Structure formats: C-alpha cells, structure tokens
Amino acid sequence: MGIIFKCLTTRAVHLDILNNLSTDSFLMAFRRFIARRGTPSEIFSDQGTNFRGGERELHEAFKDLSPDLQAQLAGQRVSFHFNPPASPHFGGVWEREIRSVKTALYTTVGAQPVAEEVLRTVLIEVEGILNSKPLGYVSSDVTDLDPVTPNLLLMGRLDGSLPQVVYPESEILCKRQWRHSQVLSDHFWSSYIRHYLPSLQVRQKWHTSPADLKENVVVMLVDPQLPRALWPIGRVLKVHTSADGHVRSAEVEIKGKTYTRPVARLVALPAIPDSGPTTDPVQKV
Q1: Based on the domain organization, do 190 and 222 belong to the same domain?
Q2: pLDDT tens profile 36-61
C-alpha cells in the first residue's frame, strides 16, 4: 500500500510506500516526506484513523516540550484539516491523482507479485511522470518557452530523469528486476496518455448556483449502505461556511445524536405547510 502527498501550490505529487495503515507507519512516511520536501504549514486529509492518530501523536509530543522549545518551534507546527466524514469529493484535488495512480497500477502490476524494490522504483517513476505534466496551455510553436511543470518548480530545471529504455514484453518475466520495473513504468505511461490526459480537455460550466442549506431545515441523510426507504431524517443544527461563502457541510441531529456530513449527502425535504381552518369553496344556496 502507498501514500500520496500533493502540493496545492505547485500541484506536485510525492509517492511513498507504507507497510501498513497504522499511525506509526504514517508518521514515518511523513518524516521521510519532510526530510525530502520540507515541512508543510498545513495538511488536508480525510478522516483516516492513521491520519487522526498522527495528528494526535504530534500534538501530544509538542505539549510535552519545554516552553522555550515550544516558542522556538511554534512557527514550524503543522496544522491538520480533516474533511467531514463520508465526503471524498472534498479532496478532489488529490483524489483525482489517487485514481490515476490506482488505475495505472491495476493495469500495469495487477495481481502479479512484485518485489518491494521494484514497486518502489515504479512508484517513483510514476511520480516523475505525474510531475512532468504541464500546468497550463502548451504552445505548438517550438520557439516558445517550455511549459511550466511541477518538476520545473521543484528543481528549477526541466525533467532530469534518465532516458527511457524500451524493453520487450518478454522482459516482464526476466529475473533482472531493473528491466521489470522499466516495463511496468512503460505500462503506466501508456495508460496515462490513454485515459488521464484526454480527461484534461473536458470543460464543464455551471449555469446556476443552488441555494445554500440553512439551519433548522429537515433533511434526509444519504447513506448508500442502507435502502432508500431507511435513510435517516434529521434537522440541521449548524452549517459550516467555506472560504467562498457557500455552505459545504452541516451538523445534523438524528435521534438525539449529532452527525457532521457534507451537503452532497443531505437532501433537503420540503417544509410541511401550516395546518389552518379549512373552508369549503362550494357554498350552498
């Protein structure tokens, strides 16, 4: 299993291997990332137990330091921000990269056993391919400047990888693990240019903006694990507004318990009209 770090400024990705999904394994991968890339100021992630445990472990370690060290290291503290539960679309920036890596690995590696050293080499080769994609428009004129890529922002120069060596498909059964890793990297590249790059040309446009969810609104909680007839119904207690001024998540009270869910998982139900005295439109003569 692996872990992906994505920079929200340069759009660069960093791939690494985890031995398991424990907090210790995540913290060691995080330390390796900081040693190679530097200390980030903020970390955005989902509600994974290893991420939650890592944040708690770092917070407790910081509290155990002396006040002098806390004052000196205050500027290097990492702020963790967790998405609401059951809301993978909140991390669309990195979820798209996860999908690209997973799809390519399923296509190239599949169920075949691969040595850890080969897998690590393939992942880093994949990292280099993803970091070499242009961040903007690419001109067809050869006299224009080279496009800006994440690798260019990270290293200050164009892609510095070794020339690609193309081996035949029979090399995948070879005992030379170096050639095995190169064949797998070629498979990833083929899948990358066939499935991922064409998706970058898709252009979508929003014509209308739906109304934001408000407090005290009765909503139905979408739970794919339950039949639609058994989806729970509750009332919105509090809404959370994002930086763009729109409501992205809310706290919902259901049977005395409070749940935090994204608005994409909440269906606002129409209000029940007030009951008043009924009048008969037909008058007797």
Answers
A1: no
A2: 888 888 888 888 888 888 888 888 88
Same domain, 253 and 117: no
Whether residues 153 and 111 fall in one domain: yes
Nearest Cα neighbor of 84 from 247, 268, 267 is 247
pLDDT value of residue 220 = 83
Q: Calculate Rg over the CA atoms of the chain.
A: 25
Are 124 and 132 in contact by the 8 Å Cβ rule? The answer is: no
The phi and psi torsions of 16 (rounded to 5 degrees) equal -150, 165
Whole-prediction pTM value? 0.61
Of 118, 274, 107, nearest in space to 187 by CA: 107
Range of the domain at 26: 2-65+75-135+148-201
User: Which own/partner contact pairs does 9-13 have at CB distance under 8 Å and 24+ positions apart?
Assistant: 10/150, 10/153, 10/154, 11/135, 11/150, 12/131, 12/150, 12/151, 12/153, 12/154, 13/97, 13/127, 13/130, 13/131, 13/150
Instruction: Report residue 200 as tokens.
Output: 């970058």
Per the structure, how many domains does the chain have? Answer: 2
**How wide is the angle at C-alpha 278 spanned by C-alphas 272 and 281, nearest 5°?**
120
